[in-house]
Amino acid sequence: MTARNRRRGPSRLENFLVYAALAAALAFALLPLLWGLSTSLKAQIDVHKMPPVWIPSPPTFANYADAVFDVRFGRYLVNTLIVVFASLVLSTGLALHAAWATVRFRFAGREGILLVMWATIMVPGIAVIVPLYMASVDLGLYDTLASLVIVYSAWLVPTLVWLLRGFIAAIPYELEEAARIDGCSRIGAFWRVTMPLLRPGLLAAGVLVFVMVWNEFLIGYSLTLSDGNRMIQVGIYYFMTETGVEYGPLTAAAIASIAPIAVLYALLQRAFIQGLTGGAVKG
Amino acid sequence: MTVSRRRVLAGSAAAGAILAAPAIVSAQATTIELWTFLDPNGRGVRSELLKEILTNFEREHGASVRANIIQWTEISPQLLRAARAGNVPDVVMLYSPFMAAHVQAGTLLALDQNIASWSQARRDDTVMLPMTKDRKGATFALPWELRVYGLLYRQDLLAQAGLEAPRTLDEMTQAAAKLQNANMQGVGFSFHPATSTAAIEFAMPQMIAHGTQVLKDDGSAAFGGPGTERVLQYLRDLVNKSRVMSLDTALMPSDDVQNLGIGGKVAMMGNGTHRLTTVQERSQPGARWSFTAFPSLDASKPVPASLQGWTLAVPRRARNPQLAWKLIELWTSPAVQKAQAIRAGYLPTSRQVAKDPEFASGLNAQFRLPEVVEYVARNPLNFAWPENSDALNEALGRMVQTVIGNRGSIKDAIAMGERTYNELRR
């Protein structure tokens, strides 16, 4: 290949193939969402119309009125927010200190502990759901928001430890040492010097926890029973009724439940990407 | 004007607080808990009726009812778990095919003493389901609605083609062939083993009508016999020879087959009376659905009708069993049963309501529900449901799937079905 050929940009065919592949990937990701949005705006009688109608005419917001502005939906939303924020505080609080300890201290079994933590990330949720259920019943925590907070936190701590290790390792240890020379305790140096510099990492961890807990179904479904303790993703499942699936309200609730995540992602997408890659490149 | 991220976040928090407000509910002195799959605050006439029943009960007894809405397939397993955890409700809705498991597990209180307090007329008037009783005859639940599985058909299309509702399976095939076109299949049954009950509700009664035992006295499978072979051969031909039902349709979940009917893509389908109102409401204008018992292989041997229903039961360790019984008593009363039957198309559990001229009017007449009641009375399915009816449905479903998929001989499929059930029931 000559130098001139190497400098040449992609050919029209290459461009076409790249854009075609991107368009196919985009359609694959977006079409179900757009179909859900379309269904959520349809009158009940149009939901099963054959051939299907893409753009409802006229669109109706009745499904949103039925599903989203229902008292129960509000309760599910509040429950989800409580669990998300409690899990966020507990899991990040634990993981932050654990990550700091594994970066700053050398102690026997450190690598082994990290490896075991990493291994727990690989265990699928379905494999532990029955023991979790039994434990929650025995401890009197079944059907409480507290059980969800504890399980979600335990589930997320290993991921967060590995994520935050990368951010902590990127902060020079000399800064903490300087603070200690100035009279800070070890913990004081961590809180006063390292923590403020960890803000991007904490933001990334927060977004990760928010997205994972918000979208979780299996644990939320298995550890709660009463309507008053249901989370939003579990609540949506209840549109599958005994006489058939209520597609209109179901898609309206699903679209509404995606909205907070979409807004959060739009506001904090850089932190989200950093959360996915930060630990991987710096750990 | 620019909006900062902080303002957006603050606005979101405020919106959350506003949405939280309705969640705060006031507590009352005596509250009983009801596990239901119907939401009393939901939309639709069934929810409205439930709300009325609960409101009337609260007014009469000065108590309040807390409805815990649980997905309908989950009520039974949740109750088994709750019995272990000790947090049972006062009243629970249970679907009759799942009753055997609860009777066996001892999760429910016997209602015989309460029923004995009724007048003889009330006792005679109320339909009891055999699966709600144990071997000694004790009753553990009362149905608050009944349903029968059969053939839902487009009356308007059959009338246009000059056809009546089919009485035999051959008539059904002929009608399906006549109604079938490029945009519509003649008939649809779902034999999806996990999400359909067609195997247990359609194929099994056909087998029983033609002499198949289905289960031996020791509880093991006895699916084989000439009757079963004829039924399976018919189903194989329906898909592969007369081709009035596609294999794709037969393998779909039952909700999807129902959606095909609603969307005008299937002229006849297997389904229950409880879904008639929903199917009619969601179909395009002009579609008129009606119902008939399952057509049989031979006109002289009608298919026995499997009468099922949602029941009301009181779990052991319920906090207010007496109040719970009062709610059951009200719900199964002729007055409530009449309101349910006329306004929402439920098959009543009260015999006098079933004979009421008002029951035979409006949509119920279009659906031919009074004829259904008579058919069930003449041809009841006498079958001792096993503890694990899901396993029976799954085994029969797999057997039918093997046959309609043209995989091997019918005898092999029957043997496979029997093996499957015997393994699953363990």
Write a structural description.
The complex is a heterodimer of chains A (283) and B (426). Helix content of chain A is 75%, strand content 1%. Chain A has 283 residues and is mainly α. Chain A folds into two domains: 11-60, no CATH class; 66-282, MetI-like (MetI-like fold). Chain A has a two-stranded antiparallel sheet. In chain A, strand 1 and strand 2 form a beta hairpin. In chain A, helix 2 (12-40) packs across helix 13 (247-282), helix 4 (71-104) crosses helix 10 (199-215) and helix 5 (110-122) crosses helix 7 (145-169). The longest helix of chain A has 36 residues, at 247-282. The two termini of chain A are 39 Å apart. The model of chain A has no long low-confidence stretch (mean pLDDT 88). Chain B is of the alpha/beta class and 426 residues long. Chain B folds into two domains: 31-140 and 308-378, D-Maltodextrin-Binding Protein, domain 2 (3-Layer(aba) Sandwich); 149-306 and 381-424, Periplasmic binding protein-like II (D-Maltodextrin-Binding Protein, domain 2, 3-Layer(aba) Sandwich), CATH 3.40.190. Chain B has 20 helices and twelve strands. Chain B has helices at residues 5-20, 45-61, 75-85, 99-105, 112-116, 120-125, 155-160, 169-179, 198-209, 226-240, 247-250, 254-262, 276-282, 321-331, 334-344, 351-354, 362-367, 369-378, 389-404, 410-424; strands at 31-36, 64-69, 91-95, 142-143, 147-154, 185-188, 214-215, 221-222, 266-272, 289-292, 307-308, 310-313. Chain B has a five-stranded mixed beta sheet with strand order 2-1-3-12-4. In chain B, helix 2 (45-61) packs across helix 14 (321-331) and helix 9 packs across helix 10 (226-240). Chains A and B meet through helix 4, strand 1, strand 2 and helix 13 of A and helix 1, strand 2, helix 3, helix 12 and helix 13 of B.
